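Interim report, section 4.2 (structural modelling).
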Amino acid sequence: MTAPDPSFVSFPTRLAPITVPIALGDRSYDIRIGAGLLDDPATWQGLPRASLATIVSNVTVAPLYAERLAAALAPHYGRVLRIDLPDGEAHKDWQTLDLIFDRLLAEGADRKTVLFALGGGVVGDVTGFAAASYMRGVPFVQVPTTLLAQVDSSVGGKTAINHPRGKNMIGAFYQPLRVLCDLGVLGTLSDRELSAGLAEVIKYGPIADEAFLGWIEDNLAALLARDPRALAHAVRRSCEIKAWVVGQDERESGLRAILNFGHTFGHAIEAGLGYGEWLHGEGVGCGMVMASDLSVRLGLMPPAFLDRMVRIVERARLPVRGPALGADRYLELMRIDKKSEGGEIRFVLIESLGRAVMRPAPDEAVRATLAAHTG
Amino acid sequence: MTAPDPSFVSFPTRLAPITVPIALGDRSYDIRIGAGLLDDPATWQGLPRASLATIVSNVTVAPLYAERLAAALAPHYGRVLRIDLPDGEAHKDWQTLDLIFDRLLAEGADRKTVLFALGGGVVGDVTGFAAASYMRGVPFVQVPTTLLAQVDSSVGGKTAINHPRGKNMIGAFYQPLRVLCDLGVLGTLSDRELSAGLAEVIKYGPIADEAFLGWIEDNLAALLARDPRALAHAVRRSCEIKAWVVGQDERESGLRAILNFGHTFGHAIEAGLGYGEWLHGEGVGCGMVMASDLSVRLGLMPPAFLDRMVRIVERARLPVRGPALGADRYLELMRIDKKSEGGEIRFVLIESLGRAVMRPAPDEAVRATLAAHTG
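Predicted structure of the assembly:
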């Protein structure tokens, strides 16, 4: 399961837009990565025209970028509507989804209406599911504005809302027409959001690309300082690996699940504390530490791997200890993970650097991991 | 747009199960039609096994057939769960959908769980959308128990819930694994439900098969008397035509819209009166009269066609006059139809017997039609 083409060696020396294709037959599309994409007329070429475009954003991101996006879209659409959602994972629910449906119907949006998701993972997931479901499907474009969304959630067509009983439980596989990663917008991210995004960047190393893990370690200071070239490479390599995985397994029948390294523990933390307490990336950061511990505990990896993962997660300014929910509660929350089968939790574990596997683990081992890394 | 193979001439002389294939590449499946399918072990062969099967039905149908279905499934699944929804179009909404999600999550249903939709169009549409969205998609089987569901709504993968602002506005194209039309269950239908189903049977004549229209006229008394052979043929020929249309245009980018003959007016009646006042098939019956009137008014068809459609709809014991909502309200409701584009209503009209077209119509013509057939 090692990703081919270690293109990290071609570290970009300029920031001309990069295109990473996602090969999914008649649902194929491009990820475009570059600084200033929002202001580049070429960005909008080839997208379907319609009488209505709708920018779905949130109350935090919209004041920063919605007007620029609306101005860029105006030449191509009869009308550009804006819908601002409340901000945060706590609002990734049916009520927020229905805000979109209600507004689209009130404005007479038809099946050709193009939705533009302008925001982080929550905006992208909710807007994507709205696009999948409105009139049984309208086209949509991802315009991710957080590092986390650029390297992970906006790519690959997973859309969802949360259910009180579990994260991302209601949703669809529904591909966007295009993903536009404008690196310029990362400048307004909070430090906390930047670190949360780095969790998903780090993830790609152990699951698919040992060399990329080394590159991240070497460049973590530059990434935290938002060096544009370091960010450009991190986004590009992350998207390449994600594109490679998704192109082989769009609907997560196998390989794709490796992208959930750290997520089984992380989702339990998010759900256990109530959505929005921890950022998704914080849960993933801490969850990777736990999943690394479990990989070591089950004899798949040497103890030095856990130390290495703790160190990189810490250096990315992410939590390495989970909240004291109690092991029973963790296990209960993890049993309703989507990767579970017949009530058996299936963990994404590392079996060698750059190679992940999915397998169950004895409850005692999981409890030992939780004892070591929570509270 | 005339359906090939006028197999109505091969009127079945016995009720051995009939299979009508739906060709949709890797989403292909069979419709099986026959008396006593629920009790035939062959019915379940080839379906995926899992630790959990879930029968979703409603409080009216479940007491009649859920136990039989549960007994038939028991050998193949570790556990068979039952979820009974409230009955009726008024409950085809998010609250009902969430009943399913909540119960599935509470019971630990995983991605392999197979849903069985046991009921009419509402149960099938809601269960299908639940299957499309639960954990981003689980397998499901349609077990339609009304004539309307057997000849139309269970076939072709359209799933949806209603929104207060419009019918079937939120949903997905999501194909079942199989459709099981047990003709035996039609015996418990109310006369009103039987007539509502006949509306969708009649529909297939003018849009795709002139000879079938003649057959329906000749056999309407037998159909109303629930003659098993007449019902078997009506279901079979309807499914053949639907399979032919859906096989060419799964996602309703063109041809498939002809299946909505009568539905633009019909949906407006349903929404205007409040869901559940009129049955869907009653709206379609009356809507076909209106769409026929409009076809005549626009010079596509001779006046005798309207007379013929009024006569057959009346004989099927369906309404031929719409409620007095006022023309403005009708137009407003029809403008949010999913076939509308840029606020322009697109009607399914008949241009010759067995051939439908989709086109806009001048407001004056629509108002004249409404004046002639409402109030």
